[in-house]
Amino acid sequence: MSGTFVGMPAFPEAAREALADSQLRHNLAHATGTIRAKRAKVVAEVEDWEELRLVGAAVKERALLDLETQLVRLEETLTANGATVHWARDATEANAIVASIAKAHEAQEVVKVKSMVTQEIGLNEALAEEGIAAWETDLAELIVQLGDDLPSHILVPAIHRNRAEIREIFRSKMGAAGRPAPADLTDEPAVLAAAAREHLREKFLRAKVGVSGANFAIAETGTLVVVESEGNGRMCLTLPEVLVSVVGIEKVVSRWEDLGPMLRLLPRSSTGERMNPYTSTWSGVTPGDGPQEVHVVLLDNGRTRALADEVGRQALRCIRCSACLNVCPVYERTGGHAYGSVYPGPIGAILNPLLKGVGHDDQIDSLPYASSLCGACFEVCPVRIDIPSVLVDQRAQVVDAHRGGVPKPEAAAMKGAAYVLGRSRRLSALERFTGLGMRFARRFGPAAWIGARDLPDAPAESFRAWWLRTNGGRNDGGRKGDGTDD
């Protein structure tokens, strides 16, 4: 597994189903609108915000352009700090490493910090196959897990659920996974949070192994960083005897001082806060304090493929803030499930094809088209990823990947149009059949296209005929002509 949901249809089909769900659209509009407003308020407080975006982009770009050196340095400093570093080429290798560590400690369960990369590799499912239960401790991730659901947002995985739905999930599912919800559970946010806290507390205190990702990995000091809002991450990072951190290789930054601008950009862009309530940093093992065995799994899983793409590599700057999702008119109307991936929205529309490649899966090939190219995503991206430009480049890659063989209807239509428009005589000859063509299209054209568009009646006279009639039969430059020169 590598980030896409097995069996999901291509984006147009999935989006059509999502658009028919009025409750989903209401939930999304309310949630994204609230987050947008909070972000705009705290960003407006920073006078040098645009300069800060440039600094953030430069920090990530500098590390990516020297990635091999920085990763070797990170391994050295982590090892010097007492951590064990593992390298994983893909999801299968990463999952096997985590499972082997858990088995070595006879752990039947692990507690997890919210982590996109572990969702990307399908770690929970892989551990379940080995008889190991992986418990999500982030509130939204817990809701998704208990509801046997799929995440639909990078920051707020349960954004598609409202309070009443969450109450029902807790009431009906918590008991089977541990401490049940109180009998008098209501849908008040504070009450729901308290129920989750009681449910998770016994898991925190019992677990031998914790699993995390990392927002940043500092090569200079061998330090990993996790930012969060609830404190569950702090519990997972400090209470278990063993900590395993799965980290995408693009998370590395060069120097400790590079962390400063990132910690100003990330919370404002994600939760609309000036700083994260919990910022945890750890550097290997500290005797008598926290986990006494620390493992770091450095994961590729398509990232070097993305790095080789001169246009698309900028997507590896992403700090998973989700600001692009919250401003995207497509995401707001379709939700995250329509993208068929743990990375939804504009960033998912470019990141999934970059990690997996195009030309072999219709669902992935559909993602670069899941955009209106309005540019709002670039305007809010804290590290200035030009998502619209990458989308256009990937659309070209999708088209190129399907050249040869039997052309798709769209490709055949474009080739036909190119042939006709390539010679004025051909165009002139076919113009007389415009009316017939319009009538044929109304009756036999693709329903998905014709049903949403009005085809006008063909004019009684073509532009070419009008020009010749009103200009006395003269074409450009005052030369007498019949308008059929090639």
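The above is record 1. Record 2 follows with the same two-line structure.
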Amino acid sequence: MTKEKSILKNVIYKTLLNVFNIIVPIIIGPYAYRIMGPNLIGRISYAESIYTYFLIFASFGIYNYGLREISRIRNDKSQVSSLFSSLFVISVAANLIVTLCYFIFVFFNFKGTPLFPVLILYGINLVLNVFYIEWLFEANESYNFIAIKTMVIRIIYIILLFTLVRTYEDFLIYVSLNTLLFLLNYIVSFIYIKRSVKFNFSNLQIKSHVKSLLIVLVMSNANILYVQLDKIMLGSYLSEKYVGYYFTSQLITNIINALLLSIIYVTIPRLSHVIANESQKAYEKLLGQICKGYFAFLFPAAIGMFLLSKEIILLYGGVEFSPAIGILKIFSIFMIVAGIEFIFTNQIFYVKKKEKFSVVLIGCGGLLNLLIKYILVVFNMLNPYTAIATTTFSYSCLIVVEYIIIRRKLKVDLNLLSIKNMKYLIISFLFIPIVYCIKYLISNLILIALLSVIGCGVVYLVVLLLLRDELVFSLLTRFNIIKSNNS
């Protein structure tokens, strides 16, 4: 790469992709959920949770590790080729071993059950995971290709879904289409990247990477002992229906959060590059700007989701999924906590190569969550509400400890609770009277949601303009909506 790519352009491409990824579920979600119902959706989610545990070990932390390490050497084609080849060999070995273990586990534990064919189809995804090299594109900040490729493939998926899935009897076709989506996405990326990055097996380094990968594996998969654990325990101790309610709330949260995390994902390569080539002060300045930008969108999104939980659930899943309304409210709080933890893990511990701290802390928080869950089981108190509430509590304990270590041990000058950051949360509380007034005057779900988003968005922007918020004026200047003071 001869030129530094603009973070703003990368955010735009990543945001464009995530907006598309939001629109797609909004289009197909209500259609699929009304056809399948809570039980079948819960079955998919339960199977996906089991598959995810194996996928974590098959992926072996290569995505996060490769993203960081390639970002540091991306200007040296020879080093990139050698590192890519080494990681690919490790990926092949990990995926083959884990896939074999997965199919043995599935045959011994689920053969003859309704879950069995779903798990077999997900097993195919494990095989395809060998070709998952999106991290190489992100390390080189090639978000334009990722965006275009993903949008084209998802359009194909939408067409096939509406054509082939008509009733609940098409359940396995619906699951198979997800496997087809993985196949097209992975293969296209792999073929494209091979045009510019060649294999170089003459200088493979396996052992030197495995230790770091094991640390990243634990660090980057907190869901093992958090949200994924919730779904496994709900499916094991209650029923698929409860997993369906939980998963619906999680999915909606992920749809919204995916757009917000664009800011985080696209800046990891740049932060890695800055800290490797510039000063600690430059790193802290960029980190502070990223946190501020992230909170500017995170807080209003979370507050808005909390206030519109009923409308969102009923519009997305229908009346059958109404028990998920309260779950989504708790998920809106979880989204804030998890967002802060994501910054700590990926933009501080990981970028500064202090993964060991993060691994220990995440593990301790996860064990706390596991202990609380078993207490809930013993006292017959486990349900989707208590599951996400206790996970939120465990995450909150985790970020408090992480923040103390970041400030005192890592000496990173990050004032998370500064007025510059917290003002976005304070302003977002203005949404409460606005939404309740709209709900009092209007009964139509679509109008409530639409007017609430527009009304809250306008008020939020106006208040920030009145406060002469630096972030808003910077964005307006960048897009030539207002003129720079320097011009």
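Residues 218 and 315 are 37 Å apart (CA to CA).
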